[in-house]
Predict the structure.
Amino acid sequence: MLLCPIIGFAQYGTAPNNYYPNGYSGSIFRGVVTDNNDNQIILTFANDKGTQTFTALFETGCSVPTTPPGGPPTMPANIPKGTAMTAFFNTRTKKVDGKKIKENVVIAISFDTWKGHKIEEDKRKIFLCTDDKHLHFMAY
């Protein structure tokens, strides 16, 4: 597992130095899970200056440990609403009905809270949500 030092709690940002899958852009979004389904998650960040919403698809299930061990990979629907987390993502463009649309694709996640309990910064881990297991060090 990869350790993830996340400083502060702000919406869009850049990932800390670490080992990431090939092609990762370094983009992150920190927020609270406000909606989810089988393959999509919505995070919201709110403060006195306003609210930002982030919607993303999961490329594949995430490597979050399961109970019992060996269970299926974690998908958005498995992450409880109200969980504070960081999504590591890439944005891709695709054509739908002849129009270009952008969509965010999660390649990793990290939890700031889990089931209402805060996870200390030095205990936070990055869980991969990608088929690309070829990791390389990236400095941002």
Summary: Residues 2-138 form one domain. Residues 41 and 76 are 6 Å apart (CA to CA).
